[in-house]
Write a structure and sequence with these properties.
By secondary structure, the chain is of the alpha+beta class. It contains nine helices and ten strands. The strands form two sheets. Strands 1, 2, 3, 4, 5 and 6 form a six-stranded mixed sheet that branches. A four-stranded antiparallel sheet has the order 8-9-7-10. It binds (3R)-3-hydroxy-3-methyl-5-(phosphonooxy)pentanoic acid. (3R)-3-hydroxy-3-methyl-5-(phosphonooxy)pentanoic acid binds next to helix 5. The site of (3R)-3-hydroxy-3-methyl-5-(phosphonooxy)pentanoic acid (PMV) has 15 residues, from helix 5.
């Protein structure tokens, strides 16, 4: 066994969460500010992690599945996990853990793995954690690039022609992805015509948002993010705390703001003009944000 170490960042959904489940495209970017590192060191074949309770059980399950995928009967040494991506807050913590774990295990055997293989195996581990995830998290996390993602279709890598500055503020409690997806389904069933119109509008927003993103046009992208948030609020996945964070960011001069990920908890995401990040961070903190992060796709 070779000592090994690998790390992976998280992901942030810029536009299209929830509606992506119904075939609308979504855009997601890497989270550069928070990462998960997995090392394999000589020692007893155990998992060392700060995770507790259910989260620890899930990590153990992922480790067993990962060992099987890479053809190992047991951990080649002590598998140590360090992460500053909050778990269950919609930032891709499980995909980052799976991606870093696979890379560290493969490296410890002295083998190499292509990015496509890494993405495929990480998706398999995401299925162990989430059942039937759309695949957006494992794609962004293993490529460490912004993507346009359509369920069931090949993803497309996208690139901003000028860096964009994003600030995230946590509402303090996690967002229950499965329950949020199910609640949107119930809302859609109860409001069939309106939901159809929302999907249509969401598709237009993602297409326009992609053009703005690729052009590095933050002034155009901001209002698109805010409108996307209004649609997410309408289908019931915002919360009073997320509303407070979104309003605080806009009042502090953010070009746009929205919830990101499943909602009903997790993080609000704001698009900053260059140099205004500290004002948005201060506004998030005054509005009760428990944790603030930044990323620059
Ligand atoms: O797990 P989260 O918070 O990143 O949210 C997942 C995004 C959804 O669109 C709500 C679900 C999915 O599988 O794409």
């Amino acid at each position: 066994m070779l000592p090994s170490s690998a790390d992976a960042g998280g992901k942030v959904i810029l536009l299209g969460e929830h509606f992506v489940v119904y075939g609308v495209p979504a855009l997601a970017v890497p989270l550069t500010d928070a990462r998960t590192t997995v090392t394999v060191e000589p020692g007893p074949p155990t998992l060392q992690t700060d995770l507790e309770g259910d989260h620890r059980d899930v990590a153990e399950r992922v480790l067993r599945a990962a060992l099987k995928l890479v053809g190992l009967a047991r951990p080649p040494g002590t598998v140590r996990v360090r992460s500053d991506i909050p778990v269950g807050f919609g930032l891709g913590s499980s995909a980052a853990f799976s991606a870093a774990l696979l890379a560290a295990l493969v490296e410890s055997t002295g083998q190499v793995m292509s990015v496509d293989e890494h993405n495929r195996l990480t998706h398999e581990l995401e299925c162990v954690v989430h059942g039937r995830p759309s695949g957006i998290d494992d794609t962004v996390v293993t490529r460490a690039r912004a993507v346009r993602f359509v369920r069931g279709e090949p993803f497309r890598l996208i690139r901003p022609s000028a860096p964009l500055s994003l600030v995230l503020g946590s509402c303090g409690y996690p967002g229950p992805t499965r329950a949020a997806v199910a609640s949107v389904r119930r809302w859609a069933d109860a409001h069939v015509a309106r939901f159809g119109a929302i999907l249509e509008e969401a598709r237009g927003l993602v297409d326009a948002g992609q053009a703005a993103f690729e052009a590095g046009d933050a002034e155009a992208l901001g209002p698109i993010m805010s409108r996307n948030h209004a649609l997410l609020r309408e289908v019931g996945v915002s919360t009073p705390e997320l509303e407070t964070l979104v309003s605080a960011a806009l009042e502090a001069g953010a070009l746009g703001a929205k919830l990101t990920g499943a909602g009903r908890g997790g993080f609000a995401l704001a698009l900053s003009t260059p140099g205004n990040e500290d004002a948005i961070i201060a506004a998030f903190e005054r509005a009760g944000a428990h944790h603030v992060l930044r990323t620059t796709p």
